[in-house]
Amino acid sequence: MKIIFTLVISLFLASCASYSVTEQQMQEYLDDRSGFERTVGVKGLAHANVKFENVKVGIGRVADDRVNLDADSKAKIMIQGQSSQLLQIKVSFSAVPYYDKDEGAIFLNDLNVEDVDIQPNEFNLPSKQLLSPIIEMVGQYLLTRPVYRLSDEDFKQSLLKTARPELLIKNHELVIQI
Fold it and tell me: How far is CA 3 from CA 7, 14, 15, in A?
């Protein structure tokens, strides 16, 4: 009887030993939580008010082991003696996902800037001095917040939270498995 019980429990746990996070699930998670507005620079001299609005997610599309994120930002740049300018900044990042057991969440590491598109293309500003902090601010925001958190209310997810799962990318999904 003990053998049958052990076998049944083993089969049950084996069926619960992985959970896949799709691009859509990650997108919905980030849609509910992404977005901020900050100011960088020195007010009165040169500063930018940055509004980070949304992120588009791809899993394993840029590289097999990376998540790609396309972030949209608007920046109102003001320099003393010049009229303010409004820029649309689209930055494409790629990063390696990892699972943090203490948080029960997936975070990003090793963030790379893949592409930057700024509209309008021509503006009368010292671009690198102002745009680098804006891009760095968005990147730091993405690195310090989870891109997905396992739920305590879902039985399979709560079981995985207590284990030491491995995180893999398969078929454009993040697979958390024991």
Answer: 6, 16, 18
